[in-house]
Amino acid sequence: MNRVLLAALLFKMSILLLSQGLLVRGADFSQPADNYTVCQGDNATLSCYIDQQVTRVAWLNRSNILYAGNDKWSIDLRVQLLQYSPSEFSIMISHVDVYDEGLYTCSFQTQDKPHTSQVYLIVYVPARIVNISAAVTVNEGSNVNLLCLAVGKPEPTVIWRQLKDGFTSEGEYLEISEINREQAGEYACITANGVSTPDIKHVLITVNYPPIITDVKDSRPLIGKTALLRCEAMAVPAAEFQWFKDDKHRLISGSDGLQIQNERTRSILLFTNVTVRHYGNYTCLASNSLGSYNVSLRLIRPGSLDNVAVASTEPPVLLGLLSSVFVTLLFKI
Q1: CATH class of 133-209
Q2: How far apart are CA 72 and CA 65, in angstroms?
Q3: For residue range 65-110, what is the model confidence (pLDDT) as tens digits?
Q4: Which residues make beta-bridge pairs with 212?
Q5: CATH code matching the domain that covers 34-125, chosen among 3.40.50.720, 3.30.9.10, 3.40.50.261, 2.60.40.10
Q6: pLDDT at 112
Q7: Do 285 and 278 meet the contact criterion of CB atoms below 8 Å apart?
Q8: CA–CA gap between residue 41 and residue 35 (Å, rounded)
Q9: In whole angstroms, what is the distance from residue 216 CA to residue 297 CA?
Q10: Model confidence, pTM
Q11: CA atoms of 137 and 89, how far apart (whole Å)
Q12: CATH code of domain 218-299
């Protein structure tokens, strides 16, 4: 089929160039076309090496004559004549694109017969991401599906990578079942085909979960001193903090010599001048739209019985039961 098409092209060229004397009466198809690979956007140089016996020469692409000797036939501004000498006939195509790919033929006439030299131009296209999932926000335990579509020539590979711990998954689709908070963070889609540098885009996964208080500490200040109780909690969305005295009285910042300083992951209850009424039990409550968590803290007066540690690993209820049994035994004796 290619030989028939090329013969038709050469016949057309002979008619078009009849006035210039470039007659193509036959062709030598014994030599297969060479492959010439360039990257999209680069320049392609097509060279035809001849000798002094050549009387006429031209470059053709498909049914189009690009150059016949010094005469330009192509209307494409990107096609330029580089050299026309007794030994070489070369043209250049600037900023090559995918539609330039195909068979190019150098046809030249000697005293005895016409000849052809062919090259097949292959245009490689750098890998490029054309569609990727938007940022995702889900509750812990949900399923997450991410998509990353890429194009290029040769066919590009696609890899998903979690930036935090380096987890990778091959393929356009990333499926995460029952996602947990440790899997939250930024994921990179990386596509490459060896033509150019990899194309990389990122997707942020936010995993919502209820608060959990991670750090609390009692305080033992003297009267008249400054003291603080600290409560730290992890949560997404960030937790809102509230403080209570003796599990019922909600504390307001600025009242009764107290200041409440709330940050993203922690809350501080500040006593600027400790008095007797400040000692006691306090509750820190952390909450968001998914739930709440509370913990008790104490502001302990130095020298009070609360300072005496019980050297036992038994829970208080069990200790009470043991004490009751011991008293009963003494009574029976």
Answers
A1: mainly beta
A2: 8
A3: 999 999 999 999 999 999 999 999 999 999 999 999 999 999 998 8
A4: 234
A5: 2.60.40.10
A6: 78
A7: no
A8: 18
A9: 7
A10: 0.70
A11: 62
A12: 2.60.40.10
